[in-house]
């Protein structure tokens, strides 16, 4: 069974405009992004290629580019540009200016690809 | 009814075999594969990279497990075939236990009932080879390894953690690759070779000796003419090796790499004919008409192979035969060549290494000081053997001439040193379709032609997207262009190759005009107004750089358009930490600055302190959170070692100290560096000022280089390079004063900033525009723009701010913060 935990990550302004920021939830690093048109996305922070920090990547076209070797990941689905490389993505919402994540810990049923 | 094909061995030959069959006919076979290794198929060649840690194991997979599912192939992993019952027409196999080595000769000890048996119509044996282990006492002691599989690499890496010394037995191709790989695990490595030289099967004595010197210079100890007779253990672990002459060498780890032997037990137990390898005819058929063999387990016309090229050829022939595409296809043997994949040593060899035939032409070129040795054996105007050591630029061309048995050009110098400009050593359009063009991604000419004909690819870039050809080292791009033009007449002009950035369909001059006339001052505005509705990530960094150049003070800086390095003013490292390179003007520093740097390195636990190739100091492995504090402690401005901007000015000691000094290179270098520090450009700009033409500061090969000459004069060179490309700069002008040096370098620098494409270094730019035209524009002022160039550069100089000042005052919240810890207090669980 999937255990979903809704967590408040604090005010929207905690994430710089158009960028990502890394949050450590239950010991896991999650990259949360805020696009210029006001959307919020979250994916695992650790790039499946060679562990690059995705929160430091440039975003655009609904994707984040890993800062180390440029592999790309879809912010919504976590799908990667390279075969058999993808990351988990999370449902996000904004309430009263606060960012909420529906966090699901990694488990065997919850593998991205 | 589909026929059932059973493939024994899921390595490079087995998996490629199935790929080639599926490419030709998808519906004639139901395919069952057995692989003794617990994985899908990976590129065994790249194990050298896995061992030397430049690639992770999961990066070398060719056919991941999904591939088998997608293609409806039944794959048994970790299962070893024991024999084939040819009467019953069944293949028998047993599951290996975890940790069992897949390539041992034995069969797992299991009850008969545990056999997996699969009926077949046809079988292909592709069991490969195993490492050869010479008779050495103690070769099974813990700490002794072989080098054949991913698991071997993992075991070696794990064991190496507690070792200081390693010995590799065998100085052949694989032994040297293993030795180099072990060095990356911080081991002191020795290679022991029984013959009197390294790589005896590929190199002549002289090349062997030069290679030995090169390996020695890398810190590898080489012992030739040394036979290992015994491995000795202490407390259950390897502790030394003993040689037949009585000598000993202490060691913690041993890798045996003394050659390979074909794996033939399955064939033997099934009553097939086996000599050194499994005997096959010219269609890869064994003596049973329903059983075939391909790869390293095969002996064909008396030859066994240990390389992949012959496999690709065997597999193509067999696929043609089995699929009925060409039932008369024959394999007649392969001509092979090899390259040593050891970082820092360039070596290629093909064919014969020595000749006795007095009619053969032997061409030799030696340049011992530079470690270069080239030898060609030519017979009937064709290459029969070649060794290239120290300089392998031509090896791809030579390999093509050799493998395709092409006639050589009359001018032999061309073969050794490359063709004269404009002509080409070989023409790809003459090659057969099976010739491999892209050696990095294994793409043949036929694949490229198919992409041109079936997918309408007509530019090199389009071929790359379709087939991956040309996307490795890039050295085959010329050959791809030749093939395109031989098929469709000419290589397409791909307008997008000329856009300044991919997301805005304008060339740079048009883009600059639009930005200026519409007064667009931020990346998001440019994208909204000139873009194609896409917020392409790579486009953003290019636009940010250009806007900063165009609007030095008025630019609206959006940090999200910058690469991480430019957000935090430090270079990101492979582990996510950063490097800190302070500005050390002209390479000259003071005891006080050094003390501060040393203290900061201790305080912030720098993982390494290194003198860079740019005459300054790099503190590596600094945490993002510590950047502001370390900058403050060091108290020097940013050296911009992380960004596309003006970087360094190297200098030499010049007139103050050197007996040959003709001009005060240090004071001029300081003036230049203080003027241009931090100015943004389409790519890095590096300079040097050197006190005489002996060129100790390497000014001839810098983006801008200044050289003092007799008579109190300075020469200014532009477009030099000594990175991925080597180019001597072109002389722009000779001037008589420091002021004039600043004036003309300002003109060139600004002109480059305004006109170069994003990520075009000056070496490409100067070559594209041409030095004569540049002299006209920048010296004779033929366009009347020089005053403006100087003015614009002055504006940029005035707008300079040390980015490390952001330590005091971050420009956006959390700029220098690490992960934010989230305490989960109440868990609102939801079983959605
Ligand atoms: C630190 C340093 C190596 C060293 O330990 O000495 C270095 C380190 C890097 N160089 Fe370099 N280069 C360094 C001197 C050079 C030099 C020598 C020089 O500056 O005199 C060259 C040849 C000259 C030149 O610039 O072409 C050089 C040619 C390159 C190139 C090839 C550029 C080209 O077009 O030929 C790259 C790749 C690129 O720019 O795309 C590169 C890229 C890199 C990067 C930034 C790769 C990256 O993106 O992470 C390396 C950062 C390593 C890290 O993790 O911090 N580095 N690099 C040197 C810093 C010099 C400095 O003080 O600023
Ligand atoms: C470190 C290293 C570097 C190399 N570098 C190069 C290079 O630069 N250039 C080059 O051309 N070549 C290179 N080679 C050689 C190249 O890898 C081989 O030529 C190629 O892998 C041979 O393919 P194969 O399918 O015949 O054998 P393999 O790739 O070994 O595949 C055979 C597979 O069959 C399995 N198997 C064996 N017996 C059974 C059984 N009874 N039942 C089920 N499965 C079985 C084995 O476990 C193995 O997985 C290198 C090899 C190594 C080890
Ligand atoms: S980019 Fe420069 S520093 Fe990095 S590995 Fe290559 S040569 Fe060395
Ligand atoms: S680590 Fe992300 S692309 Fe390499």
3D architecture notes:
- The complex is a heterodimer of chains A (113) and B (832).
- With 113 residues, chain A is mostly beta strands.
- Chain A has a domain at 16-92: 3-layer Sandwich (Rieske Iron-sulfur Protein), CATH 2.102.10.
- Helix content of chain A is 0%, strand content 42%.
- Chain A is built from no helices and nine strands.
- In chain A, the strands form two sheets. In chain A, strands 1-9-8-4-3-2 form a six-stranded antiparallel β-sheet, with no helix packed on it.
- The model of chain A has no long low-confidence stretch (mean pLDDT 91).
- Chain B has 832 residues and is α/β, with parallel strands linked by helices.
- Chain B has seven domains: 3-129 and 262-323, FAD/NAD(P)-binding domain; 144-258, FAD/NAD(P)-binding domain; 337-426, FAD/NAD-linked reductase, C-terminal dimerisation domain (Enolase-like, domain 1), CATH 3.30.390.30; 429-493, Arc Repressor Mutant, subunit A; 498-562, no CATH class; 566-638, Sulfite Reductase Hemoprotein, domain 2, CATH 3.90.480; 645-801, Sulfite Reductase Hemoprotein, domain 1, CATH 3.30.413.
- Helices cover 30% and strands 22% of the residues of chain B.
- Chain B has a five-stranded parallel β-sheet with strand order 5-2-1-9-21, with no helix packed on it. In chain B, strands 11-18-12-13-14 form a five-stranded parallel β-sheet. A five-stranded antiparallel β-sheet of chain B has the order 23-24-27-26-25.
- In chain B, helix 1 (12-24) packs parallel to helix 8 and helix 22 (738-755) packs across helix 25 (786-798).
- The model of chain B is unreliable at 420-424 (pLDDT under 50).
- The interface between A and B is large, with 46 and 43 residues.
């Amino acid at each position: 069974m999937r255990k979903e935990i809704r967590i408040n990550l604090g005010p929207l302004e905690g994430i710089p405009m158009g960028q990502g920021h890394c949050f450590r939830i239950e010991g896991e690093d999650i990259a949360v992004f805020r696009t210029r048109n006001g959307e919020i996305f979250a994916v695992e922070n650790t790039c499946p290629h060679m562990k690059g920090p995705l929160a430091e990547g440039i975003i655009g076209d609904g994707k984040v580019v890993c800062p180390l070797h440029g592999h790309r990941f879809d912010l919504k689905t976590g799908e990667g540009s390279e075969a058999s490389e993808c990351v988990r993505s999370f449902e996000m919402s904004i309430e009263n200016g606060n960012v909420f994540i529906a966090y699901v810990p990694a488990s065997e049923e919850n593998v991205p690809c | 009814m589909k026929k059932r094909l059973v493939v024994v061995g899921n390595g490079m030959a087995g998996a490629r075999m199935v790929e080639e069959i599926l490419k030709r006919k998808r519906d004639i076979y139901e395919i069952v594969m057995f692989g003794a290794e617990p994985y899908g198929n990976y590129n065994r060649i790249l194990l050298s990279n896995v061992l030397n840690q430049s690639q992770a194991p999961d990066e070398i997979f060719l056919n991941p497990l999904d591939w088998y599912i997608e293609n409806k192939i039944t794959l048994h992993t970790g299962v070893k075939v024991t024999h084939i019952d040819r009467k019953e027409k069944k293949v028998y196999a047993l599951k290996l236990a975890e940790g069992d080595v897949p390539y041992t000769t034995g069969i797992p000890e299991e009850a008969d009932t545990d056999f997996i048996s699969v009926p077949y119509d046809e079988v292909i044996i592709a069991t490969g080879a195993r490492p050869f282990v010479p008779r050495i006492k103690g070769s099974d002691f813990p700490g002794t390894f072989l080098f054949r599989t991913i698991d071997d690499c993992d075991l070696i890496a794990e064991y190496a953690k507690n070792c200081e010394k390693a010995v590799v037995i065998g100085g052949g191709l694989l032994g040297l690759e293993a030795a180099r790989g072990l060095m990356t695990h911080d081991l002191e490595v020795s290679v022991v070779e029984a013959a009197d030289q390294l790589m005896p099967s590929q190199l002549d004595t002289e090349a062997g000796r030069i290679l030995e010197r090169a390996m020695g210079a890398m810190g590898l100890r080489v012992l030739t003419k040394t036979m290992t007779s015994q491995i000795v253990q202490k407390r259950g672990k390897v502790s030394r090796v003993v040689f037949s002459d009585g000598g000993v060498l202490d060691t913690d780890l041993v890798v045996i790499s003394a050659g390979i032997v074909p794996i033939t037990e399955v064939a033997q137990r099934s009553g097939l004919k086996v000599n050194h390898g499994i005997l096959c005819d010219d269609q890869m058929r064994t003596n049973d008409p329903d059983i075939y063999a391909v790869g390293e387990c095969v002996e064909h016309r008396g030859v066994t192979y240990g390389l992949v090229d012959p496999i690709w050829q065997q597999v193509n022939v067999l696929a043609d035969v089995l699929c009925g595409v060409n039932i008369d296809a024959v394999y007649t043997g392969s001509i092979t060549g090899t390259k040593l994949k050891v970082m820092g040593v360039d070596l290629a060899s093909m064919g014969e290494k020595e000749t006795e035939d007095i009619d053969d032409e032997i061409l030799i070129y030696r340049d011992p000081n530079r470690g270069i040795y080239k030898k060609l054996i030519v017979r009937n105007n064709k290459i029969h053997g070649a060794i290239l050591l120290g300089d392998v630029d031509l090896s791809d061309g030579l390999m093509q001439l050799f493998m395709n048995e092409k006639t050589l050009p009359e001018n032999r110098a061309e073969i050794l040193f490359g063709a004269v400009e404009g002509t080409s050593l070989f023409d790809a359009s003459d090659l057969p379709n099976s010739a491999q063009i892209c050696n990095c991604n294994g793409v043949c000419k036929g694949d490229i032609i198919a992409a041109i004909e079936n997918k309408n690819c007509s530019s090199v870039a389009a071929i790359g997207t379709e087939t991956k050809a040309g996307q490795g080292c890039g050295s085959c791009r010329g050959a791809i262009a030749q093939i395109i033009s031989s098929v469709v007449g000419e290589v397409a002009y791909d307008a997008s190759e000329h856009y300044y950035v991919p997301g805005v369909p304008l060339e740079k001059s048009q883009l600059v005009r639009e930005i200026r006339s519409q007064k667009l001052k931020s990346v998001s505005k440019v994208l909204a107004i000139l873009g194609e509705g896409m917020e392409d990530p790579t486009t953003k960094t290019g636009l940010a750089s250009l806007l900063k150049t165009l609007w030095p003070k008025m630019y609206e800086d959006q940090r999200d358009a910058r690469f991480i390095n430019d957000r935090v003013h430090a270079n990101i490292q492979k582990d996510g930490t950063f490097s800190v390179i302070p500005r050390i003007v002209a390479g000259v520093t003071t005891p006080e600055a050094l003390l501060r740097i040393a203290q900061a390195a201790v305080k912030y636990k720098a993982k390494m302190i290194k003198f860079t190739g740019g005459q300054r100091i790099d503190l590596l492995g600094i945490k993002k959170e510590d950047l502001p504090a370390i900058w403050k402690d060091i108290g020097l401005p940013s050296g911009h070692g992380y960004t596309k901007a003006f970087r360094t000015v190297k200098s030499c000691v010049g007139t103050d100290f050197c007996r040959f000094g003709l001009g005060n290179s240090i004071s001029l270098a300081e003036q230049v560096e203080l003027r241009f520090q931090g100015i943004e450009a389409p790519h890095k700009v590096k300079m040097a000022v050197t006190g005489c033409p002996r060129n100790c500061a390497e000014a001839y090969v810098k983006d801008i280089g200044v050289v003092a000459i007799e008579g109190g004069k300075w020469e200014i060179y532009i477009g030099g390079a000594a990175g991925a490309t080597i180019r001597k700069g072109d002389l722009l002008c000779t001037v008589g004063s420091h002021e004039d040096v600043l004036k003309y370098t300002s003109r060139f620098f600004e002109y480059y900033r305004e006109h170069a494409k994003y990520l075009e270094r000056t070496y490409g730019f100067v070559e594209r525009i041409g030095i004569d035209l540049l002299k006209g524009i920048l010296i004779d002022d033929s366009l009347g723009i020089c005053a403006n160039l100087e003015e614009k550069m002055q504006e940029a100089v005035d707008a300079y701010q040390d980015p490390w000042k952001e330590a005091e005052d971050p420009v956006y919240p959390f700029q220098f913060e690490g992960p934010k810890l989230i305490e989960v207090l109440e868990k609102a669980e939801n079983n959605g």
